[in-house]
Design goal:
Keywords: Glycosyltransferase, Golgi apparatus, Signal, Signal-anchor, Transferase, Transmembrane. Its main location: Golgi. GO terms for molecular function: 1,4-beta-D-xylan synthase activity; glucuronoxylan glucuronosyltransferase activity. It is found in: Golgi apparatus membrane. It holds the Pfam family Exostosin_GT47. The chain has about 400 residues and is α/β, with parallel strands linked by helices. It contains 16 helices and ten strands. A five-stranded parallel beta sheet has the order 1-2-3-4-5. A five-stranded parallel beta sheet has the order 7-6-8-9-10. Strand 3, helix 7 and strand 4 form a beta-alpha-beta unit. The termini are far apart.
């Protein structure tokens, strides 16, 4: 596009959209309730609808692992830790396994971190086999269903395939012992061997207190059109390029690095959270896995997520109306991002922002401590409650 064309687009954008956005949304913070079944599901209360028995395992499966490396409390897979803590004091917990609808085995499978903070799940299959052998030897409940009324939190990139490289994960497949269990996992991609039918897909963990501390006054306008901070190439793991993010991130950089509507960079500034709150659109492209914490951050900060990940399965899809709050862009259409985003009518953008401003939407994406009504913990329980009653065929 020529320089004169860019000047015209920028003029129209600033004159017609940003001022309208600042006046109508940031100052008054208008919100819109999610309508239909999604809104009803989002506001469900799981208490009284199910009972969960938490197995008491030796601390080597959970607490001792965390003591060895407290960094696990803040990484994107920390949902397994906080879900355990939540259930221990939750009103859905029962100490009587005979009345339990679900059984939970607290194994921290992603808390073996490299010096750079990346989880290595090589020990996870052995830990999981050991834990299942323990519960099946000491309680009768696993054996009567082969785990069909049990659920596990497996939040790694490729869930219960327990490998950080996709090719190896696919080759390995989901741990056979977990084939009948329900998996709660952040990984979600349609028709993928590492996403089990019936899994509950959840958002990655983002520290709620940290995000709260970076909130800016609602009167500040959204003066950035498109925002992204992150890798475009993973030279260390993909030296030839093209495989990382299936080339989608590289296409973003090559096509829009000089585009004045796009504020994109590999640098991660201290004002990252504040910048997202000043942006209209936040790019959420796939990386090695289809999802990233940007999805959560965008929703929390009211920035319309631009989801670039073909066949992604989004968290709590029956409660969050992703098509209403986000923009889907096929990976092959990344070179046309500027045209796609500038052609969205202002009234459509404003409605997406009103929906994003709904507090219940934000709450469902977070794992706060202490827990709050409608948060991600409760959405997981809602997902489990909707699977009840168990069909008689689950019992052997």
């Amino acid at each position: 596009m020529s320089n004169s064309s860019w000047v015209f687009v920028l003029y129209v954008f600033f004159a017609l959209f940003l001022n309208l956005d600042a006046f109508e949304l940031r100052k008054g913070q208008k919100t819109e309730r999610i309508s239909g079944s999604a809104g009803d599901v989002l506001e469900d209360d799981p208490v009284g609808r199910l009972k969960v028995f938490v197995y008491e395992l030796p601390s080597k499966y959970n607490k001792k692992i965390l003591q060895k490396d407290p960094r696990c409390l803040n990484h994107m897979f920390a949902a397994e830790i906080y879900m355990h803590r939540f259930l221990l004091s939750s009103p859905v917990r029962t100490l009587n396994p005979e009345e339990a609808d679900w059984f939970y085995t607290p194994v921290y499978t992603t808390c073996d971190l490299t010096p750079n903070g990346l989880p290595l799940p090589f020990k996870s299959p052995r830990m999981m086999r050991s834990a299942i052998q323990l519960i099946s030897s000491n309680w009768p409940y696993w054996n009567r269903t082969e785990g069909a009324d049990h659920f596990f939190i497996v939040p790694h990139d490729f869930g219960a395939c327990f490998h950080y490289q996709e090719e190896k994960a696919i080759e390995r497949g989901i741990l056979p012992l977990l084939q009948r269990a329900t998996l709660v996992q952040t990984f979600g991609q349609k028709n993928h061997v590492c996403l089990k039918d019936g899994s509950i897909t959840v958002p990655p963990y983002a520290p709620p207190q940290k995000m709260q501390s970076h909130l800016i006054p609602p009167s500040i306008p959204r003066s950035i059109f498109v925002y992204f901070r992150g890798l475009f190439y993973d030279v260390g793991n993909d030296p030839e390029g093209g495989y990382y993010a299936r080339g989608a991130r590289a296409a973003v950089w090559e096509n829009f690095k000089d585009n004045p509507l796009f504020d994109i960079s590999t640098e991660h500034p201290t004002t990252y959270y504040e910048d997202m709150q000043r942006a209209v659109f936040c790019l959420c492209p796939l990386g090695w896995a289809p999802w990233s914490p940007r999805l959560v951050e965008a929703v929390i900060f009211g920035c319309i997520p631009v989801i670039i990940a073909d066949d992604i399965v989004l968290p709590f899809a029956d409660a969050i109306p992703w098509e209403d709050i986000g923009v889907y862009v096929d990976e092959k259409d990344v070179p046309n991002l500027d045209t796609i985003l500038t052609s969205i009518p202002t009234e459509v953008i404003l409605r997406k922002q009103r929906l994003l401003a709904n507090p219940s939407m934000k709450q469902a994406m977070l794992f706060p401590h202490p827990a709050q009504p409608g948060d991600a913990f409760h959405q997981i329980l809602n997902g489990l409650a909707r699977k009840l009653p168990h069909d008689k065929s689950v019992y052997l």
